[in-house]
Amino acid sequence: MLAIEKVILHHLVMDYKHPFVTSFGRVEQKDFYIIEVIDQDGYSGFGETEAFETPWYTEETSETNRHVIESFLVPLVLEEEISHPSELAQRFQKVRRNNMAKAAVESAVWDLYAKKQNKPLYQLIGGAKNAIDVGVSIGLQPSVKQLLNVIETKLAKGYTRVKLKIKPGNDVELVRAVRKAFPEIPLMVDANSAYQLSDIKTLQQLDQFNLQMIEQPLANDDFVEHASLQQQLQTPICLDESIHTYSDVQTAIALESCKIINVKMSRVGGIKNVQDIEDYAAKNGIALWCGGMLEAGVGRAHSLAIASLAQFTLPADTAASENYWERDIIQPTVQVKNGQVHLPEKPGIGYEIDREALDYFSVEKVVIEKK
Ligand SMILES: O=C(O)CCC(=O)C1=CC=C[C@@H](O)[C@@H]1C(=O)O
Ligand SMILES: [Mg+2]
């Protein structure tokens, strides 16, 4: 039994090495919370809030994460002992949606539980491999020349697949230039919902470039229109922003809105929900892969653990710490060698929290104790 006695919200602000630009805008810093849960025996588990500062990607923000965690989720964790972290998804159903807030707390309890079981988290959740193939996601660049240079440097670091951000006006010719320079590389594009079904002619032109997939071309609630688009495209559609729940996965599969799903633990509300989605995707022959949220080390470690599940067959967007940060908050940092991250075999997330780095980036600490 886990009796959580204390929860600490470490409020951190970290600057990215380079701004990340998508069809929605720029991300330059990460203002977020590391959630530390501490139990009766003094064990700590860690989770990370992954919402951005503005609600462009999902409806959540770093501030709504804090509000929901502090006012609603932490009281639910403290009120009663937990026999297994998979119970929390159900306990959190008293709070609607707010998946990123839920995932940060639930994943921290999984880390704590795995540490007490003396097992790596990826093994505890049923991971099938201990080396993860890693691709890299490259934001929109000021010019094609700069984009080609960035791709060159990432390929030299061994990444196994390149994902480009596209938006109307920065699409067919951009991909043509990249394909010309790199005819063989595994390549995909992500539109972050920048298109409408009426843009079909443009999207069909992308079929000529042998892309692994087109990620989230249409709006986040357009299951029917994605199905119509998929019927008229050869390139597989991958859904990202559309998928928040198990039932979204059922809808996408039933309507044939996509052939591939990008799973982010935070977007679907935690590790238990990822396990259920993985099970359903396996039964229905839908390929999964683990997306990234430009996380810091704790969130990244959780992403890597879910990427070890058997149905996650395509390279993950889990680039190395040095891709984002001058200094990360875990030790060792995430390293990519020959296109893979080797999962640490230590208990829990397998990476130590770098307490000095945590203090360095900390702007506030909220401590909530069981009454
Ligand atoms: O490197 C990563 O962590 C992935 C970056 C990335 O592509 C994304 C992060 C967050 C929001 C989006 O812009 C995007 C995605 O849509 O997958
Ligand atoms: Mg995406």
UniProtKB/TrEMBL annotation:
Active-site residues are 165, 264
Q: Which InterPro entries match?
A: Enolase-like_C_sf (IPR036849), Enolase-like_N (IPR029017), Enolase_C-like (IPR029065), Mandelate_racemase_C (IPR013342), Mandelate_racemase_N_dom (IPR013341), MenC (IPR047585), OSBS/NAAAR (IPR010197)
Q: Which Pfam families match?
A: MR_MLE_C, MR_MLE_N
**Gene3D superfamilies xrefs:** Enolase-like C-terminal domain (3.20.20.120), Enolase-like, N-terminal domain (3.30.390.10)
Molecular function (GO) terms listed? magnesium ion binding; O-succinylbenzoate synthase activity; racemase and epimerase activity
Function in brief = Converts 2-succinyl-6-hydroxy-2,4-cyclohexadiene-1-carboxylate (SHCHC) to 2-succinylbenzoate (OSB).
Name of the molecule in the record: o-succinylbenzoate synthase
Taxonomic path: Bacteria, Bacillati, Bacillota, Bacilli, Bacillales
